[in-house]
């Protein structure tokens, strides 16, 4: 082979290797997700949720926190909207449950606000504030669930939201130790 051919071959090889995913980085991120989820109450839910997010594969701990917080926020918005829909079809609700659903709308709207604050705390590395905002968002959800005379109307949503908050809290605890 001519020297110029060798040069182009080596440049092509180097460029190809540079753009291929690096298994060490991918494994490291995967290990990080595993470590985070090992510290949650529902490991499998955490793994499923974080691994379904493409950005989690290369994320550091702060970035995983942003992902988990944004997912929890999006679900809190969905739950508030679902509760509003339930109120529109209130013929099946008794007076007790109607008030509980109204309370849930307010509580989940507050949870959205708390999660916005949690994300801001995360981005500014105020990890103790992050923990407080996450705990308050989770308390909003717990208060909503306790307002029903019997579980059922929003329980499935509440369970998923609690799991997302647990994931974000596990990340927060690890960040607080940094």
From TrEMBL:
SUPFAM superfamilies given in the database record: Plant invertase/pectin methylesterase inhibitor
InterPro entries xrefs: Invertase/methylesterase_inhib, PCW_Enzyme_Inhibitor, Pectinesterase_inhib_dom
GO molecular function: enzyme inhibitor activity
Signal peptide annotation: 1-26
Pfam families in the cross-refs: PMEI
Ranges for domain Pectinesterase inhibitor: 28-171
This protein's UniProt keywords: Disulfide bond, Signal
Family matches, as SMART domains: PMEI
Membership in a protein family: Belongs to the PMEI family.
Protein name listed in UniProt: Pectinesterase inhibitor domain-containing protein
The species this protein was found in: Turnera subulata
């Amino acid at each position: 082979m001519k020297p110029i051919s060798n040069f182009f071959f080596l440049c092509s090889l180097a460029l190809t290797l540079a753009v291929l995913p690096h298994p060490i980085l991918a494994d490291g991120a995967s290990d990080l997700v595993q470590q985070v989820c090992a510290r949650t109450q529902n490991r499998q839910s955490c793994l499923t949720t974080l691994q379904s997010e493409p950005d989690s594969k290369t994320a550091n701990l702060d970035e995983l926190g942003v992902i988990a917080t944004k997912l929890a926020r999006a679900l809190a918005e969905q739950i508030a909207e679902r509760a509003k829909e339930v109120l529109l079809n209130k013929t099946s609700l008794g007076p007790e449950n109607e008030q509980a659903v109204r309370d849930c709308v307010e509580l989940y709207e507050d949870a959205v606000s708390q999660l916005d604050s949690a994300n801001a705390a995360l981005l500014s590395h105020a990890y103790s504030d992050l923990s407080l905002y996450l705990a308050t968002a989770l308390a909003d959800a717990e208060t909503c669930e306790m307002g029903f005379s019997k579980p059922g109307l929003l329980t499935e949503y509440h369970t998923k939201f609690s799991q997302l908050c647990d994931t974000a809290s596990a990340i927060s605890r690890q960040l607080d130790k940094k």
